[in-house]
Amino acid sequence: MAQVDFNERQLTLKLVYFGPPLSGKTTNLRALHDKVDALNRGRMMTLETRDDRTLFFDLLPVFFRSNGLSFRIKVYTVPGQPMHEGTRRVVLQGADAVVFVAHSSPDHQDANRESWAGLGRNLAELGVRVPIVVQYNKRDLPDRVDLDTADRFGEPGRTLHPATAVTGEGVLPTFFAVLGAAWDALDPMFKLSERFGVARDDFMRTVCVHVGGTERDILVA
Ligand SMILES: Nc1nc2c(ncn2[C@@H]2O[C@H](COP(=O)(O)OP(=O)(O)O)[C@@H](O)[C@H]2O)c(=O)[nH]1
Ligand SMILES: [Mg+2]
């Protein structure tokens, strides 16, 4: 759950990138980090095993002040391997919104579904409901699944965000989609716009400038 401190004028958000093994969760965070880091901001923390798979989690803190407001956006990934169920639940705890990073390879569609079921199970166990944004990553694969017929995970009208995280393509639009979803879920609860005096659009633009994005990146959000 977001931490909102109206006295200190500080907003802390937690976003989690969830998904099957090797779908590109860490690569999404790296791409995001590269953008932020180009402006000398933020340090990504990552713990990896020798086989290049995330052992615990990655964390990219996007912290900054703007117009007398302090923003703290903590972006996490979970490890995808089945044995790390406990770690996934811990990382999901307190999440404000989730990106589900699905793999675009036809061979990984069962893994996508298994991971999606695991996400539902973890959220149910934690007793939380959070917005979920779905990204199909690795759109550069020649045999990628068609997004018109790809699994929409129970919501026929769900927007699917395409990405090629290795080149950075689609990474920011997905990030702003999940950021906007978090704001939309929290605003009615905390009256963020009213009490911080910041409209949703201002919030999105402020973060966009900070992470080195452009207006186009926030269009879909
Ligand atoms: N072709 C392709 N490979 C990718 C893409 N994104 C990530 N990868 C590769 O897929 C592998 C797994 O990525 P990683 O981010 O570690 O996956 P994670 O297990 O979900 O964190 C790595 O070798 C990445 O370089 C992409 O968009 N296209
Ligand atoms: Mg990883």
What's this entry about, in short?
Helices cover 34% and strands 24% of the residues. The protein is an alpha/beta fold.
- The average pLDDT score comes to 91
Please indicate the count of domains.
1
Number of strands: 8
Enumerate how many helices there are, as a single number: 6
Beta-strand portion reads 15-25%
SS class: alpha/beta
- Would you identify the CATH H-level superfamily? P-loop containing nucleotide triphosphate hydrolases
CATH topology: Rossmann fold
Helix and strand pattern: EEHEEEHEHEEHHH
Bound compounds, each kind once, are: guanosine-5'-diphosphate, magnesium ion
In whole angstroms, the N-to-C terminal distance is 21 Å
Q: Would you state the CATH class?
A: Alpha Beta
CATH architecture term:
3-Layer(aba) Sandwich
| Cα shape | globular
Residue runs with pLDDT of under 50 for 5 or more positions: none
Largest beta-sheet details: 8 strands, mixed
The radius of gyration computed from the alpha-carbon positions, rounded to a whole number of angstroms, is 17 Å
3D structure, described in words:
The protein is built from six helices and eight strands. The mean pLDDT is 91. Helix 2 packs across helix 3. The radius of gyration is 17 Å and the shape is globular. Strands 1, 2, 3, 4, 5, 6, 7 and 8 form an eight-stranded mixed beta sheet that branches. It has a single domain (3-212), classed as P-loop containing nucleotide triphosphate hydrolases (Rossmann fold, 3-Layer(aba) Sandwich), CATH 3.40.50.300. The chain has helices spanning 25-37, 85-92, 109-126, 171-190, 192-196, 200-211; strands at residues 3-5, 10-18, 45-48, 54-66, 69-77, 97-103, 132-137, 160-162. The two termini are 21 Å apart. With 221 residues, the protein is α/β, with parallel strands linked by helices. 34% of the residues lie in helices and 24% in strands.
